[in-house]
Specification:
It is a single chain. With about 180 residues, the chain is an alpha/beta fold. The chain has 6 helices and 5 strands. The protein has a single domain, classed as Rossmann fold. Strands 3-2-1-4-5 form a 5-stranded parallel β-sheet, sandwiched between helices. Strand 4, helix 4 and strand 5 form a beta-alpha-beta unit. The longest helix has 19 residues. The protein is globular and about 50 Å long.
């Protein structure tokens, strides 16, 4: 039986508990998981590419150890299908939070299928307690001094607070 290699692509700026939930669940479906950290300069990232790769790698280490599934974290700046072929992937893993994600992801899955029908797109629904988390909201709340500690893992929280120049006020939460 051929090795099942999955690609989970994203910007991960910053990596959230929702991302880690999808990575953890995807690791149970594949023999090897590659987390692709996209350059995506157009989004004006909070963290540089190498720092995002480092954060995701650090945050995924425990998942890999617990699941027994090797997880590689690498950057990419090419067409996703080309990146997937480079790693011998048989599936693209995509997380869905809400109906609003579905339209975009449905179109992307169709395009990717046309580019390579041998690579399947697999959708994983976000767990109910992670459905509302987005990197964009995490950055906005952190910049406004709100508490994002329940949305991101500890190392990412520390780095995010330093990057936005915030001080951790656990008792205060700002509205978006």
């Amino acid at each position: 039986m051929p090795e099942r290699v999955g690609i989970y692509p994203g910007t991960f700026d910053p990596v959230t508990n929702g991302h880690l939930d999808i990575i953890s669940r995807a690791a149970r479906l594949v023999d090897r998981l590659v987390v692709g950290v996209a350059e995506n300069i157009g989004k004006g990232p909070l963290f540089g590419l190498e720092e995002r790769v480092e954060l995701v790698r650090e945050e995924c280490a425990a998942i890999s150890e617990k699941s027994g599934t090797p997880i590689a974290v690498v950057s990419f700046g090419t067409l996703l299908i080309r990146f997937a072929r480079q790693y011998g992937a048989t599936m693209l893993i995509r997380g869905l939070r809400a109906v609003s994600d579905f339209d975009y992801e449905f179109q992307m899955a169709g395009m990717n299928y046309r580019l390579d029908p041998h690579i399947e797109t697999v959708f994983l629904m976000a767990s109910e307690h992670h459905q509302f988390i987005s990197s964009r909201f995490v950055k906005e709340i952190a910049r406004l001094g709100g508490d994002v500690s329940s949305f991101v893992p500890k190392l990412t929280l520390q780095r995010t607070l330093v990057r936005v120049g915030a001080h951790s006020d656990k008792g205060e939460t700002e509205n978006v």
